[in-house]
Amino acid sequence: MKKVFPKDFLWGAAASAPQTEGASTIDGKAPTIWDHWFETEPERFWGEIGPAETSRFYEMYPEEIDNMKKINMNSYRTSISWARLLPDGKTVNPKAKDFYNRVIDKQLAEGIEPLMNLFHFDMPMLMQEKGGWESREVVEAYQFYAETCFELFGDRVKKWFTFNEPIVVVECGYLYQFHYPCVVDMKRAVQVAFNTALASAKAIKSYHEAKLDGQIGIILNLTPSYPRSEDKEDVAAANLVDLLFNRSFLDPAVKGTYPQELIDFIQAKDLMPTYGESDLTCIAENTIDILGVNYYQPRRIQKRETPVDPNEAIMPEHFYENYEWPERVMNPHRGWEIYPKGIYDIAVNIKENYGNIPWYISENGMGVEGEEKFLKDGMIQDDYRIEFVGDHLSYLHQAIEEGANCFGYHMWTFADCWSWLNTYKNRYGYYQVDLADKAARHVKKSGLWMSQVMKENTLET
Ligand code: BG6
């Protein structure tokens, strides 16, 4: 069966500056939290591979963009590095400006629309020292950085994003110690969440005021939260997870307001952030034009059954437990659930509850550990990824047929890339990157398969 996607559908892949550029200490770039953390605790990073050892986009971007074209991508999302563009937080680094100009111009010359994100977990160390996202000064500095990007590149970039997965900064940096500064404190986490939502609204305000004839949004990792049963307490637990991890950003971004149930919960637990009335007005008045949705896996939730130690500091999971759905299908190469229908459920939710705002799949993909073992005849034979992407695209197509306002699908990622503490453990790319020779690129079977889908704008099932 032929499943034809809408005209002008965006096909491509996503990545980010800190995960691909490399060149992390040259041409005037200042350190980020990742450079700093690797320098101080390299043993935390898989294989002790640091942020300098990425897939070398800084020097290889022309070949990379040619490779994108070879597989018929018509769009690519990456991010700008704040620490590269404004090393002292105030002055434009001419080499960075020149680099991003060349990347954008090359993409446009090849017919690959640049979608640009402003923040992908890569807080400049200078800003972290000022308090990171807990600090109002950093919120203001970020707005200045955003304005600088719009001024320099906004004539050619027509789709902007303020943040990628801001909830991950909150979770990993302030609750679960997967990102620097490794704080474990729910009240501080709530402050970080509020300040990033505010920073996003401020950047949107600046963008709209600049009247640049483009659109701006945010990229959220939405994880549908399914209760174990119809039982009231299971449903309430799943609802709370949805509030904390999805709606905490989705509602202010699209509707300009926080869900009352979330406010009630935060207030009852004495976790309210510091804010002013004008902050709420700013969030209310500066909502997004477009939404990016990263979808990997859902959450299966039940009520909390294990008693909580009363001496333990409050954490989100004190109010729910993860549940192992007996019918779940697991990715055997990484341990995440594979649930393609989740993409359809997200589409329905956006249509029914968020005014059917224009959105796209900004990330979807299958991480595979030890993928070299699938190398045969010089190519990674990743049939599992073809099945994964095909199943997700089928559900996405169905949702579009039923009226979902979805304008594209990007896979994570174009070429295997460095990923935070996991570095190169899980591979995701259309192209394989060889650790021994990071300049070499070999297209995977999925890349070839996808090049047909992208060329024909059609999925054959
Ligand atoms: C996405 C992030 O959620 O997951 C990426 O936006 C990240 O930055 C990707 O690299 C894969 O993560 P992991 O942990 O499987 O390497």
UniProtKB/TrEMBL annotation:
InterPro entries: GH, Glyco_hydro_1. Keywords: Glycosidase, Hydrolase. The keyword Hydrolase applies. It holds the Pfam family Glyco_hydro_1. One of its GO terms (molecular function) is beta-glucosidase activity. One of its GO terms (biological process) is carbohydrate catabolic process. GO terms for cellular component: cytosol. The keyword Transcription does not apply. It comes from the Bacteria. PANTHER family: 6-PHOSPHO-BETA-GLUCOSIDASE GMUD (PTHR10353:SF139), GLYCOSYL HYDROLASE (PTHR10353). Belongs to the glycosyl hydrolase 1 family. This is Aryl-phospho-beta-glucosidase. The lineage of its organism: Bacteria, Bacillati, Bacillota, Bacilli, Lactobacillales.
